[in-house]
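Supplementary Methods, section 5.1.

A reviewer requested that the exact input to the structure prediction be made available. We therefore reproduce it here, unchanged from the version used in the analyses.
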Amino acid sequence: MTITAISLITVIIVHLHQYQYHQYHHHVHTTTTVTAMFIMTFIAISIIIIIIVIMIATIITSIVTSINMQTAIISVSRHDMSDMTAYISDV
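The structure derived from this sequence is encoded token-by-token as follows.
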């Protein structure tokens, strides 16, 4: 998950740098190129934010799942113990 996020961010950054380089190379500084740069940067940032949110959500989900598993195991073991004591007292 993290590896894909890092590679995606790297690709975006490289593309942005290439784009900037081409603009400076041609010495074209029109409002359209500036707007395009802003849009591309905004898209890149929003993608990064989405990836971070997904990663955080995944981590939280795994933590919650592990906690639920632990509580389930504890409740099962307690249940087994009460059954055993009841069985012993019956005998």
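Helices lie at 2-26, 31-90. These observations are discussed further in the main text.
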